[in-house]
């Protein structure tokens, strides 16, 4: 953030409030991060006065989704998840824009998969609603960490799979629509 010019190759776009970058380790065909320029370390630091910022980040994410759909071509993209990790590994607030195909060599383990599945992955609009209603976003860290250890469950069929290779094969073959989480 301090010197965005050094990282132009990963920046998709930016405005006065945020920066959109390609994820360094994408967990799907399309995986980007919307980062606010205002320094907020995590969703647990959010307060009611951050609502305009979150709404702006969401609008930018929706613009990115629209552009990616156009880039992918009609019917080639089944949808996107737009949200936050309840306990992020990157210690700077960031909004994920990730395609629901989860087709990536960087998707290597159960933690990777589960971190993009609800309830660990929090939809952007739901975060805004919670913040508006409660003034903060409280996350039970132990509960969230336990979610990362949950079984590998297909977001299409709710089938439990034993390994990441089995999950990836299932995702390649399954034609059912995504049945969990919010898709845009």
What does this structure look like?
This protein has helices spanning 51-72, 110-114, 124-134, 141-147, 164-173; strands spanning 11-14, 18-22, 31-36, 80-85, 95-99, 121-123, 152-153, 160-161. The chain is an alpha+beta fold. It has a domain at 4-108 and 119-139: 2-Layer Sandwich (HIT family, subunit A), CATH 3.30.428. The protein has a six-stranded antiparallel β-sheet. Helix 1 (51-72) packs antiparallel against helix 3 (124-134). It is globular. The two termini are 27 Å apart. 27% of the residues are buried.
Sequence of strands across the biggest β-sheet: 1-2-3-5-4-6
Mean pLDDT: 92
The radius of gyration computed from the alpha-carbon positions, rounded to a whole number of angstroms, is 16 Å
CATH superfamily of the domain at 4-108 and 119-139: HIT-like
Give the class from helix and strand content and strand pairing. alpha+beta
- Topology as a string of helices (H) and strands (E): EEEHEEHEHHEEH
CATH topology annotation of the domain at 4-108 and 119-139: HIT family, subunit A
């Amino acid at each position: 953030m301090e010197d965005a010019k050094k990282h132009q190759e990963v920046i998709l776009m930016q405005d006065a409030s945020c920066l959109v970058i390609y994820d360094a380790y994408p967990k799907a065909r399309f995986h980007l991060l919307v980062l606010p320029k205002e320094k907020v370390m995590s969703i647990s630091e959010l307060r009611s006065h951050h609502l305009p910022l979150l709404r702006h980040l969401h609008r930018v994410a929706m613009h990115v989704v629209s552009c990616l759909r156009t880039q992918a071509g009609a019917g080639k993209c089944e949808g996107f998840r737009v949200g936050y990790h309840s306990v992020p590994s990157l210690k700077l607030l960031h909004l994920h824009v990730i395609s629901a195909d989860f087709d990536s060599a960087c998707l290597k383990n159960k933690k990777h998969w589960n971190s993009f599945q609800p309830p660990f992955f929090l939809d952007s609009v739901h975060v805004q609603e919670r913040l508006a209603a409660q003034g903060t976003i409280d996350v039970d860290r132990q509960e969230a960490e336990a979610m990362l250890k949950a079984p590998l469950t297909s977001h299409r069929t709710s089938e439990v799979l034993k390994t990441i290779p089995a999950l990836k094969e299932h995702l390649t073959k399954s034609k059912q629509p995504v049945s969990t989480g919010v898709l845009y």
